[in-house]
Amino acid sequence: MLATVKESYEKLIKSKEFKNEGFLCGLFLVSDIKEIDNSAWQIDFYDKDSDTITSYAVAEKIEVTPKSEIFKEENAEIEELKIEEVKTTFKAAMKKSEKALKKHEEEA
Q1: For residue 53, what is the enclosing H or E element?
Q2: DSSP bridge partners of 55
Q3: pLDDT, position 2
Q4: Can you tell me whether residue 91 is helix, strand or coil?
Q5: Which phi and psi (to 5°) does residue 13 adopt?
Q6: N or C: which end of the chain has fewer CB within 10 A?
Q7: Nearest in space to 56 (alpha carbons), one of 99, 84, 20
Q8: What secondary structure, in 3-state letters, does 5-42 show?
């Protein structure tokens, strides 16, 4: 079963893999729809000093993608994502996206 993003976030910040550099800037789930329950949340932290992102794939194990260049416009500012402000569950977001896809006669 897919963990909630907040469960994955808590697991990450309590782990030995977490570097605590920068601030939370992104939460992603990229998966084939048939494999969704076995997918890992990607949790990204932006380090303003080095203008880089560290990504963590949080599943049973935590995989770290070390600091990498960020793709953004030169003067664009990366905003902090506050985990406590995330109100929508993954299931609710899935239902909304399925509804939108159906409306436009598209598939996931």
Answers
A1: strand 52-58
A2: 44, 65
A3: 62
A4: helix
A5: -70, -15
A6: N
A7: 20
A8: HHHHHHHHHCCCCCCCCCEEEEEECCCCHHHHHHCCEE
pLDDT in tens, 85-107: 888 777 788 888 889 988 888 87
* Amino acid type, 105: E
Who's near 1: CB < 8 A, 6+ residues apart?
37
Residue 72 has pLDDT above 80, yes or no: no
Beta carbons of 54 and 66 less than 8 angstroms apart? yes
Beta strands across the sheet bearing 41-47: 23-28, 41-47, 52-58, 62-69
> Which helix H or strand E contains 55, and what residues bound it?
strand 52-58
Q: Which two tokens stand for residue 37?
A: 């329950």
For the chain, the helix, strand and coil percentages under 3-state DSSP, each to the nearest 5: 30, 25, 45
